[in-house]
Amino acid sequence: MSATTPSPRLPRVRASELVGRGWLNTGGADVTLADLRGKIVVLDFWTFCCVNCLHVLDELRELEEAHRDEVVIVGVHSPKFVHEADPVALAAAVDRYEVRHPVLDDPDLVTWSAYTARAWPTLVVIDPEGYVVAHMAGEGHASTLEILVRELVEEHTAKGTLHRGSGPYVPAEPTPGTLRFPAAVIALESGNLLVADAGHHSLAELAADGETLVRRIGSGERGLADGGPDAAAFSEPNGLCLVPEGLREQVGYDVLVADTVNHALRGVRLADGHVTTVAGTGEQLMVGGAENVVPESAAPDATPALRHRLTSPWDVVWSERLGAFLVAMAGNHSLWTFDPVAGTVEQVAGTQNEGLLDGPLAQAWFAQPSGLSVAPDGSVWLADAETSALRRVDVADDRSATITSLVGQGLFDFGHRDGPAAQALLQHPLGVAALPDGSVLVTDTYNGALRRYDPATDEVTTLVGDLAEPSDALVQVDGDEVRVVVVESTAHRLTRVALPASLAGQVLDSGAHRTQRPVTEVPPGDIRLDVIFTPATGQKYDDRFGPSTQLTVSSTPPELLLDGAGRDLPLVRTLRINPEIAEGVLHVTAQAASCDADPAVEYPACHLAQQDWGVPVRVVAGTPEVLTLPLRG
User: Fold this and answer.
1) Alpha helices, DSSP H only, in 394-487?
2) What span, in angstroms and rounded, lies between the C-alpha atoms of 255 and 234?
3) What one-character DSSP code corresponds to residue 177?
4) 103-105 and 22-24: which strand pairing?
5) Who's near 413: CB < 8 A, 6+ residues apart?
6) Distance, CA of 447 to CA of 450 (rounded, Å)
7) Which pTM does this prediction carry?
8) Closest CA to 585 of 552, 619, 610
9) From CA 450, how far away is CA 486, in angstroms rounded?
């Protein structure tokens, strides 16, 4: 393929009508494809729990602004979790993430099915005449979309089928209040509370009452800027951690902030509110990207941490055993360390495959690791949000570490069930907080509850319910009394809860759920899995240093696959389906490397595309013997 070859297009297929429960960001009006005729339409199939979907929202902002007269982006919200199907929760998410385009509420996945989406996120491009011209799974398609949009603008301007002008977006009223979608809270030595005020893109210092605003650190405008409290800028900050007292003078700041959407760690000096970026470049780390680390020659005065891209750091804690901060890197399902003295960052856990797999940290699988909390014995509790799991990191004296799951069944099973940990269920928990007796609180976000896991009994109980998307909890001990400050994110407040001295809770069972998505019928016996990779315009397979592809397959339950599981290079594989298993999920991860096709380019730009699919399947004799999945560069 030459550098000037147009983007590969799908066969001309008429786009299906947009069908759902209702619309947001349209002033109450419904939107049809006929209303959008003459526009380039980008359908963004998303669900608000998914960090990769949030990455795509950010990727689309620039395209949206640059082509607002020619392009209409339509968010199609197709939920994974039960809570996400609540229209009130969806409206809050659209507000929280500053979605500035129409959103179709698709709780029954009608439009999702019509466009054969199989993964969150998925992008579908419709041309001004109403035909589907591209279908892209996963994130990282900003440059490809920009090229495709330019081609469509040129083509349909020449044909006279492009109609410029404003689209159907109508902005909603902003949320007022001192806090707006707060994410996390820590106690300062003064007795005040410091809140990551994500919706205001700033930090809010509150008095001990949890309501009175003492000061704000950050301008309140989304951005990445260092400086004093009025000049500094954040973008949806989440985790907060006090720097150990003995290190503060040496590093020059008192609080470390996980500045999530800036893909950075920021240091805050409390004396004057000065903010400094201490890790991350402000750009998102992309799998296999050659640009993930800036060469020292290009930034000789920057620390290694400041030359290394990060991806959606969600929370941070100080680990004495590791001698470093541990960072929950939600964006690529991993854990990292940050050494503030050496100024270095390092991935220490996770393969970047999304799932629930225990063992040595380097071999473990995570799924959007979020909340962290250090236990009295030095281990670290972890809320693994997308697997609805509570996990624990145990660090040995030689600093080797393992991960163990205490609660959680996997990517697609969740609910609100107390009792023995092996049967207990959570729903997208975002926070954890260690208790002095060795047990742990879990802010069970999508169940709106505060849960407790007790290692002594290996049981889960519910302490408090009816909370508004609790995302973090701060434990305060006063004698025999244990109080908890809970961050109620969608209520825009902190709530104080007094726990009983026994820490006993209720045993509730509101049932189990499994993510409901259209099921693909597969035959018993052999089936060919075919992942079709389409490089971006002007790129080709990158095989300069060996094979450019990799395919990993597993299943839930494992017995579903009699043959074909594991990792190999080709993107085509024969799977053998067990006829004794009626249904399950095929987990597929595909990677493909591509680079500039123009031989005249001395240093070609290269990229590694990766996508994870969880394909629910039902075993039915006589069904097609080929399963095709698209991977776009």
Assistant:
1) none
2) 14
3) S
4) antiparallel
5) 388, 425, 512, 513, 514, 515
6) 9
7) 0.87
8) 619
9) 9
Neighbours of 397 (CB within 10 A): 6
* 573: Cβ contacts below 8 Å, ≥ 6 apart: 528, 529, 551, 553, 564
d(CA 368, CA 388): 10
Q: At residue 603, does pLDDT exceed 60?
A: no
Token readout for 166 is 């404003």
Map tokens 């992309």 to a residue: 286
Range 213-217, long-range pairs (CB < 8 A, 24+ positions): 213/178, 215/273, 217/268, 217/273, 217/275
**What is the per-residue pLDDT for 509?**
62
DSSP string, 84-111: GG-HHHHHHHHHHTT--S-EEE-TT-HH
Please name the amino acid found at residue 594.
Answer: S
Tokens coding 87: 């229209």
Burial of 394 (0-12, 13-18, 19+ CB in 10 A): middle
Nearest to 73 by CA among 129, 13, 149: 149
Where are the extended beta strands (E) located within 182-323? 182-187, 193-197, 202-206, 213-217, 237-242, 255-259, 264-269, 274-279, 313-319
Cβ-proximal residues to 301 (8 Å cutoff; 6+ apart), any chain: none
Structure tokens at 277: 């970026």
CB 67 within 8 A of CB 42: no
Q: Is residue 47 within 8 Å of 79, Cβ to Cβ?
A: yes
**pLDDT, tens only, 354-402:** 889 999 999 999 999 999 999 999 999 999 999 999 999 999 888 889 9
Which helix (H) or strand (E) is 566 found in, with range? strand 566-568
Burial of 515-534, coded b for 16+ CB within 10 Å and e otherwise, reads: bebeebebebeebebebebb
Angle of helix 142-159 versus helix 51-66 axis, rounded to 10: 40
270 contacts: CB under 8 Å, gap ≥ 6: 188, 254, 255
C-alpha distance from residue 283 to each of 49, 259, 309 (Å): 22, 12, 6
pLDDT tens digits, one per residue of 17-42: 999 999 999 999 999 999 999 999 99
Cβ–Cβ under 8 Å, residues 433 and 453: no
Q: Is the peptide bond before 300 cis (omega within 30 degrees of 0)?
A: no
